[in-house]
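Task 17 of the worksheet. Students: predict the tertiary structure of the chain below and write it out as structure tokens. Keep your answer in the requested format; marks are given for formatting as well as content.
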Amino acid sequence: MDISSPPLSENHEIIRLEDARKIYKMGMQEVRALAGVNNTFAKGSFWAIMGPSGSGKSTMMNILGCLDRLSSGRYYFDGRDISTLNDDDLSELRLRRIGFIFQSFNLIPQLTVQKNIELPLYYLGWEAERSAARALLLAEQVGLGERLGHRPAELSGGQMQRVAIARSLANDPQVIFADEPTGNLDTKTGIQILELLQKLHQEGKTIIMVTHEPDIAAYAQYQMHMRDGLIERIEGGPR
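Model answer:
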């Protein structure tokens, strides 16, 4: 299946869930991590998914990021039914259309800042010169233009998260998923990262972030509160 040229959604939504359910079997028990979720995410919107432990927010992130599959229901990404994709197609979708930012940064310690940023482009088959130019542009965008030759161990936590953000942008994704992106950062640095995410949103990126902190969620347009595998309420609106 051709993942590189997705059809345009007629109503400007990027993601739609219809009766989305995810059931995990643990011995003789079934855990309903998602219990029938319905929601749409508009292109260019900024969401925070919140909820206590066991609410389903991490499962929601894994499903939306195509890291896991639904047990039943439908998930449409830019008009395409994800359930029709095999594992190779899902990998291709993640590579070309999705960016990830993790709490633990997930940088490769042996690689420089430049090579960490370039990693998705390597798998996309970009030539070295073009990849290097893209890495420099993104490093400058996140304020690390002078750190391209450094390795993660030589950077602060905030700088490592900026590298992770730059890497998430390398493939010019349609959606960026951020899983507790400020969880390992001090308050001041965390605010800087959130302001950077806001800037990316203002530039048109769709961002879906998981957090358990209300003050962090306040940076997003919408706050989705989950409980027992369901959406309890949605707050916020366009701004």
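Marker's comment: The chain has one domain: 43-69+86-236. Residues 67 and 90 are 8 Å apart (CA to CA).
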